[in-house]
Amino acid sequence: MVGPGEQRKNRSTGKVFAGRLLCGAVIFLALIGAFFVSVALNILGMVLGMVGPTLGARRLGPATVVLALLTLVVGLLLGQGVLPGAYDRITDGLVE
Question: FRET pair for 13, CA 20 to 30 Å: which of 38, 41, 56, 74?
């Protein structure tokens, strides 16, 4: 027979797993956002990264928010041509 303490422990383990899984998805979104000028993906990553600590991912949640913010800045700098990158090669042959 399972006592109330065991049920609580199982429930919290599931929440921690969900928080870590969510933070893993945020890392994926942040990395995609670094290669494309996609502010929405990085903002979504920051919001979901803030939800991670409430689910139990205490260290991974803030780390994913910082990663999403950094990739947002890098993606915007690459898109504007401040940093040399893949955007230059894609748009070289296009005529406006």
Answer: 41
